[in-house]
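Re-run with default settings, no changes from the original entry. Doing this only to confirm the output is reproducible before filing.
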Amino acid sequence: MQTPKKKIAIIGAGPAGLTAAYLLGKEGGYDVTVFEQHPSLVGGISRTESYKGYLFDIGGHRFFSKSQEVESFWTEILGDDLLERPRSSRIYYNRKFFSYPLAAGEALRKLGLLESVRCVVSYLQARLKPASTPRSFEDWVSQAFGERLYRIFFKTYTEKVWGIPCHEISADWAAQRIKGLSLSAAIRNAILPQSKSKGKDKLIKTLIDSFRYPKYGPGQMWETCRSKAVEMGVCVRMNTTVTRLAYHANRRTWDLTCQPDEPAEHFDYVISSAPLRQLVAGVHGAFSPAARAAAAALRYRDFLTVVLILKDRQLFNDNWIYIHDPSVKVGRIQNFKSWSPYMVPEEGMVCYGLEYFCFEGDGLWSASDEKLTQLAVAELEKIGLAQPGDVKDSYVVRQPKAYPVYDQFYQDHLNIIREEADKLPGLMLVGRNGMHKYNNQDHSMMTAMLAVKNIVAGRPVYDLWRVNQDAEYHEEGARGNDTGGRLVPSAVSHNG
């Protein structure tokens, strides 16, 4: 008698969910269903939206990873439709544009000699007299760059992004997102840029000067991935929200319900990239009141993009600009034509995305599209990136739960949830919201890759929480192996 196929439910058709679906489809022998709540688009926050032929991202998504396994996956899916693009970004501060990464001479000139000296003195003071272990983002950055540079180039933008003071943001955020970067590293890079010849594992991601990018935006990667997974027998159910999960210990299966009036479906494994707060609330009878309270306390930052279609006056050729100036509300501006010229269908036109960070339901989020367009046009002209009358059309996209918030209590909440989730057989948490971990898509993909390896092995060989921000797997403590405390299968990238 033929052994029944293992049934696997994947919640969310973002980078993590579709990576798992594709790899399981390649393995064969599994009955895989992906549940995605968006009516038509896959990719999650890495999707590509369109309006009148113009294509745009929900934020910008560089395709660069230190993991060769991830890079090979991207190449396998899109091949020649992955373009090599130059990276160009700037910081707008005090009505001036600063190259990012730092160009030492330009920064000195634009800050002025006196301010530059103050910044260097502040940096030296921080390095010579380091404080105790940093607890907040403010502590961490002030120690790494000096208080003066922190206030000029970090404080305003970071508080725009998160909507809370920097002293209430965990130091984990800075350590994770500014990994390997310091004032000295930035100055060295300005004088002697990073060489790709020394290997991707040695590069500082923040300072890379080029990256790959799909011809028609990141959504092209995930739409193609979905199509290839479906060809291999994977079922992708769009416009479908999972409302309830229940684990049955006697038969070691999960019951999954999509609508209250639909019968539950049985699965052997559940791979979830759903927001952790939402997942725990929807799991019946498995989490303690303490874990449910911890999940309810997790916070998210939402954001919206005002897309402006306007005459191209060649005023802005960067991929994006960080707006550190407190006189405007916009936090970051994307130029989608600089990501890929194929995203703008009309000659002489350009498409900008002005990103506003907010909380779902607040004044910005609830403002009408007309009011948001008026605000965006006024701020774009104030910054000097458009002239009156340039804007010909606009479109607004709202993105809930874009960023898991790293407040000072998030790790305590997460530890409680993880301890209980790890005891639930067949449940695997992957991706940004699934693990409440602000990560890049290569990290999300690597967690999914290892989840698939665990399913194929029939046991939890890999702890998905050991994937670091560079999409590398690091094991602390041996699990029945003699490899120095790390598992080293050839397909997984290791460094350090």
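The CA atoms of residues 81 and 215 lie 5 Å apart. The chain has a mean pLDDT of 87.
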